[in-house]
Amino acid sequence: MASRTGAHMSKFRLKLTALFMLLIGLSVLAAGIFTGQFYKHNHLEALSNHMETQLHVLSAAAPWPKDGSKAARTEYLEAQAIRFKELADMRITYIGTDGEVLGDSDHAPGTMDNHAGREEVREALASGLGRSIRHSDTLDENMLYVAYAVKDGQSGQTLGIVRLAMSLSAVENSLDRMWIALALGLLAVFALAALVSYRVALSVTRPLERMTTAAKRMAGMDYKVRIPDAGKDEIGELGRALNAMAANLQDHMGEIRRNELHLQSVLDHMISGVVMIGPDGRIRIYNRSAELLLGSLARERVGRSYTEAKQQYELLQLIRSGFETGEPIHEELTVYYPEERLLELHLVPIPMDDDTAPGLLLVLQDVSAIRRLERMRSEFVANVSHELKTPVAAVKGFAETLLAGAVNDPETARSFLKIIQDESDRLNRLIGDILELSKIESRRSPLQFSPIDLRSFLDRQLEFLGPEAAKKEISLELDAPEELFIEADEDRLGQITLNLLQNGISYTPEGGRVRVKAVIVETESEEGGDPLEHVRITVSDTGIGIPKKDLPRIFERFYRVDKARSRSSGGTGLGLSIVKHLVELHHGTIRVESMVGVGSTFIIELPLIQDY
Ligand code: ADP
């Protein structure tokens, strides 16, 4: 591209140079011709003036013979002619008024033809002086002839003509030399002019060349290009205008790019998946969330037809019907790739820039979690109602029976009142646990971290549980190093371990053993940095154990392996789910290992220091 411009430009430069040269050449030629003519004219004028003077002198020095015979006169004139030739080295001819040659320095008069017809002779006869330039065939050179009419002093009558002839070869030689000198001089001037005009042309075309190159680069969207300042003339002005235009375009492009970037980062950081499809069915926009939700990368999708996304069959059908009907679609659909998800789809036809046919904009939202949560909430409400109903029904039933007359039998009344008391306790515990759980879930009360001496902390708990364990003859054991401090919320950590220990006691038959152990372990950090120090607290019992199939569910709310047993032990079915939540609030993990009939082990790992 640039070289073509260069070629065009140098052609233009050549043309410009040629034009300059032509103009200069013509003026130089005109000047040469004028000078040559002027020189020639002046030279001839001087020469003929000189010859004229000579003629005057000659006719005064050797007057025309008036008397004597013709032969004598001829002889005299001839002798004069020869003598003069010797003196002045010029051919001299004496001519009679009738044109007859009477004497000549170079030829015998008798051999010469009549000269009356010669131009200079005719002029001299008419006006006294005549002049002519002619080619002499005899000498084969150009000659200047000057003729003078000799007059009689008294009568004024023309006596004859004296003519001087001089070869012009000397004049012509000097003229030739002058021409050569002139030509050489002009050539030098011409060469100089060529150089100057080339430079002038260059100074005109170079900025133009630069501008053309710059303009082409601008057309190729390179707006950083600038033209160097080319002075104050129109070309400089044009350069500045182009620069201003480029700066403007650069600003605008920058603005457009920035906007594009903003838009891109908005799209990239949106939680919703955004897909835009052109009227031709080709995907134009496919943001990061769309990549995650639909399981393919933007670079595999953008520019290609939406129908290629074969895994998303249901979605394809919806897009197809969107194109067919041109109506917006709001629907929930399940996708199974890359994993099962419930997506909410908003599909709207949108006008596209370059086409009259509309494209489609799809906004996809993952509502799996929301739906799951909704389901969990409604299940929870159903569970809570169910759990509350049982004790309330019991309280109501026994109260009614008492009122119906049982109150009169003190024995029965006492046992009924005991049941009512137990059920109210249960109700109270249940409501307490539900409130606790909702408080933890809504994160209304943030944890208060402080260092805890774990050994003495656990020791106190075991002491507190001592009477309960003693009732079932269960031995409580503690295995923890001295001076093991952990950063935790003391009350919450208490809830965690107390819950686990109480479960251990509840689900262990008489004579069994419940043991709590604490050790420091090092675990790999998630980012692969330095290993983090954790405290592992293990609560194990020699109880009934948990069947394998129930293990994954025991941290769910209200989940119990054996409802009746849990009820009789006073459990609410919420203990472990509260424990799990609290452990997670401490950025820890909990898991369980168990074997039916052998015992269960709950393993908690908590960070030694809370540096989150
Ligand atoms: P609950 O109040 O019924 O004890 P939890 O949430 O504390 O409720 O426990 C859920 C269920 O997990 C219990 O009903 C019980 O079946 C089982 N479970 C918990 N801890 C133990 C244990 N140490 N040994 C055997 N089963 C247990």
Q: What does this 3D model show about the protein?
A:
The structure is a single chain. By secondary structure, the chain is an alpha+beta fold. It has 5 domains: 2-174, PAS domain (Beta-Lactamase, 2-Layer Sandwich), CATH 3.30.450; 221-260, no CATH class; 270-366, 2-Layer Sandwich (Beta-Lactamase), CATH 3.30.450.20; 371-440, Orthogonal Bundle (Helix Hairpins); 446-607, Heat Shock Protein 90 (2-Layer Sandwich), CATH 3.30.565. The protein is 52% helix and 20% strand. It contains 14 helices and 17 strands. The protein has helices at 2-61, 70-88, 119-127, 169-219, 234-269, 288-294, 298-301, 313-325, 368-403, 410-441, 454-471, 490-506, 563-568, 575-585, and strands at residues 91-96, 101-104, 129-136, 141-151, 158-167, 273-277, 283-286, 329-335, 341-350, 359-366, 449-453, 475-479, 485-489, 513-523, 532-541, 589-595, 599-607. The strands form 4 sheets. A 5-stranded antiparallel sheet has the order 2-1-5-4-3. Strands 7-6-10-9-8 form a 5-stranded antiparallel sheet. The protein has a 5-stranded mixed sheet with strand order 12-14-15-17-16. A hairpin with a 4-residue loop joins strand 1 and strand 2 (101-104). The chain is rod-shaped and about 210 Å long. Adenosine-5'-diphosphate (ADP) is lined by residues 503-504, 507, 541, 543-546, 554, 559-562, 566, 571-577, 600.
**Hetero compounds:** adenosine-5'-diphosphate
* Number of beta strands: 17
CATH homologous superfamily assignment of the largest domain: PAS domain
Number of domains: 5
Structural class: alpha+beta
What characteristic shape results from the CA principal axes? rod-shaped
| CATH domain class of the largest domain | Alpha Beta
Strand content: 15-25%
Strand line-up in the sheet with most strands: 2-1-5-4-3
What's the CATH topology name of the largest domain? Beta-Lactamase
Helix content: 40-55%
Mean pLDDT over the full residue set: 88
